[in-house]
Amino acid sequence: MALYAAAASVLAGVEERRGSVRALVYSSGFQNVKPLYALVCETQRFAAVLDAVIARAGLLRAEKKLRPHLAKVLVYELLLGKGFRGGGGRWKALMDRHQARLKAELARLKVQRHVSRNEDLLEAESKPGLAPKVPRYVRVNTLKTCTDDAVDYFKRKGFSYQGRASSLEDLRALEGKHFLLDPLLPELLVFPAQTDLHDHPLYLAGHLLLQDKASCLPAMLLAPPPGSQVMDACAAPGNKTSHLAALLKNQGKIFAFDLDAKRLATMATLLARAGVSCCELAEGDFLAVSPSDPRYAQVQYILLDPSCSGSGMLSRQLEDPAVAPSEERLRALAGFQLRALRHALKFPALQRLVYSTCSLCQEENEDVIQEALQESSGAFRLAPTLPSWPHRGLNTFPGAEHCLRASPETTLTGGFFIAVIERAEVASSAPQDEALAQLTPSSAARRKKRRKAASGPGLNLLPCS
């Protein structure tokens, strides 16, 4: 039914801050706005419950073409609404295939939360104006230690290790001194949201980095092998750079650029503390770096995380969630982002690039990717990425579903956007499960791994030429 597609579109628009529910409903072109408005509001109200049921039932993994917002609307109608309207058409047939599993997961959720009514499942996080609590993500710095040793340390300090998480609901349920291993990143530990580790000795010594899960994805998806040459185009404050160095095992070279001298100095301190010895920092404008410079002739991997509106950052959402970037500011940012992406694609040896922002705005994300790919005349393409990730790019051009989005509601992270771009004549990257298998050490390797103090950092502050 058109009603469900329209509701999903409005939900996506609200998340992208394109307007209020009422404004988007009335501008949707849908003839009967009253049921549309009611359906959107009720789906929003139960968003956290619906996300939990969908994740636990594995609906988006089973139905890979089903978009997250539409799934949420359909599951609401099936489980919490008055049933499918007008017979439901093909959507009812699709949901019937998963009805038993979805109802079982809803019932299990009620048992776990000791409630009997659907209304009782509503938590504070689903009330208007309050974002879901995002867990505390802690990346283990594999240049200095290993995940097993970090887990053992926290267990000795009285924390209870719950193993590898299997769903978002596992992460939502974290409380007290319990912690988990993230289901996707093998070096990412997950603690309850209120856990404060800023003064923890392992953090101060560079063994741990406090980094949101979404912010860890760009380096993981760029996946440069040890020994390769990498460019981090807009590098400060350095968390992603240190992650790249860990993936490289300090073997190879990272050329990192940033215009802000103070941020670069802070970054140098972070990298030194993390034991990074393969990074060359340059204070200067990435756009002024010549792709024909022989120093960068072997750069095959580029991470581009340009300045953005930051509309996905949790701190900004909490400060004033109603304030969206002005159109003028968005145009200026998108213009810079497009210039940076065009420039990055000119490096002759480039094989893979990851573009990321902490913005929710289409202008800074899908629109930038679409224009850059059109201008490349087929030389580059979007690579299929993490097919089981629940939140995909907005459907603004063919292939946009290969992009990733993240938000507190759908992925329990900060708001983020990621696109993986590859040179077209190169065979597409290995299947995602194969890539992840390479990222996850075998049990034998983990047993052999021991914490090692990193050798002295070799950071060279060079002028950009």
TrEMBL record:
Keywords attached to this entry: Acetylation, Methyltransferase, Nucleus, Phosphoprotein, RNA-binding, rRNA processing, S-adenosyl-L-methionine, Transferase
InterPro entries: MeTrfase_RsmB-F_NOP2_cat, MeTrfase_RsmB-F_NOP2_dom, NSUN5_7_fdxn-like, NSUN5_RCM1_N, RCMT, SAM-dependent_MTases_sf
Pfam families: Methyltr_RsmB-F (PF01189), NSUN5_fdxn-like (PF21148), NSUN5_N (PF21153)
Active site positions, chain numbering: C358
Localization per record: Nucleus, Nucleolus
Top-rank taxon: Eukaryota
CDD domains with a match to the protein in the record: AdoMet_MTases
Keyword hit for Transit peptide: no
A single MF term (Gene Ontology): RNA binding
Single biological process term from Gene Ontology: rRNA base methylation
All copies of domain SAM-dependent MTase RsmB/NOP-type, residue ranges: 126-424
UniProt keyword Methyltransferase present: yes
Residue numbers spanned by region Disordered: 438-465
GO cellular component: nucleolus
Binding sites annotated in the UniProt record for S-adenosyl-L-methionine: C234, A235, A236, P237, G238, N239, K240, D258, D285, D305
Family: Belongs to the class I-like SAM-binding methyltransferase superfamily. RsmB/NOP family.
Database matches in PANTHER family: 28S RRNA (CYTOSINE-C(5))-METHYLTRANSFERASE, NOP2 YEAST -RELATED NOL1/NOP2/FMU SUN DOMAIN-CONTAINING
Protein name, entry field: 28S rRNA (cytosine-C(5))-methyltransferase
